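User: Second chain of the day. Same drill as before.
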Amino acid sequence: MKQSGKPDYSWLGRDVLRWVIAAAVSVAMIFGVNALRDSAGQATFTGTVKGESADGDTTGAAQISYRQVEAPAPEGANDVVTSAQWAELFPEIAESYNMTSENEYSVDYLEQDSYLVNLYEGYGFAKEYNAARGHAYCLEDVNAIARPHPLANCLTCKTADFTAMVNKLGAETAYALDFEEVFPQMTENVGCYTCHENQVGDNGKLVVTHDYIINQLGSNMDSMDPVVLSCGQCHIEYYFKPDDSHATTVPYHAVEEMSPDAILEYYDAMDFADWTQESTGARLLKAQHPEMETFLGEGSVHAGMGLNCADCHMEVVTNDEGYTYTNHAFVSPIESENIMSNVCAACHKDTDLVAKVHDLQAEITARETEVGNKLSELNDRLTEAVASGSYSEGQLDELRRLYRSAQWYFDFDYVENSEGAHNSKLANYCLDTSEQYIQQANDLF
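Assistant: Same format as last time:
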């Protein structure tokens, strides 16, 4: 069943909406949405925090303190001003970012959900698949992971150094470089350059530094929230081009094309597969981490209200000296009294929000387990059908098509990191659709 209609927020009332809007614009990273191409080809977003809603209401707004400083001379690879350099000028923000090192692995997904080994058979994720640690571990973890990484393109969202290398050398060259050749040159994790280029002192200006976002979305970025773009340039679904460049690419050109339905149609039209599973012969897709697509997708309550990633994951804090800044520890909102009180309470004041979110996530997780096991059973049945010699290639190809679709919708939900909290309607839609494809396939045996 397709999702239809837009959420109705009329019940919130004008005063609550004004408060939410004011709180939203208070975050340090909310700027005007005029995308400009700078000399390096990145998209920059200009403007300043207004600290009030459109009608002048300042309720809930916080004034961010900006230190207007001259950018240091780049000391990092490929002309990157390193995070260590910026830390001397913005120690509070640097200290908060370093707190991401406190986010350690907590889950081995292959151990927790053993059916995944069957689903990812023949692909790297069947070798090792863990819950992601904080941004401070990006380089360490991509190097240590048991999954193979022959090319440098798997560094795409792991290090500011590689982003700068792509911008310097060009996509046709950089992505296809050998991983072992490039990795020793990488010293920065995801850092200041990733979201701000070398302009951190310029009112926190955001810069979309990843070429594939600019290339695919183009002028459609102008109507998108720059905070969502900044986070979404890494927290997205992507694929590597099946040509000599192996360039990282996103499978859409506009928000309207970010749904799992449209993305599957995109991949089907180009006959793309991440890998062919030997046991089933199915040409399968591996979703990455489609947080932006899920957050902007139909059914997203918070996106519909004009909130963005920073509102819910980046606290606005004031230190003992009265300096107000944006915390870069990237916290869960239900673990932040600051965010719960200043953002969430606008709509959830009388709600046990922690319990509500945990209940929702438990519900989605239970459904993932149910559907994942059904999908694994379909994998087994298809494997047996292929080995039996009792089915024509036409019959097998139809079963493979249904299995591919079921796997795609399941994976789109499973690998999105909020467990339904970003968009429970879309999460359930993906699981429902996967289950429907599984049933269609089972009816053919």
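Confidence is low (pLDDT under 50) at residues 1-41, 44-61.

User: Great, on to the next one.
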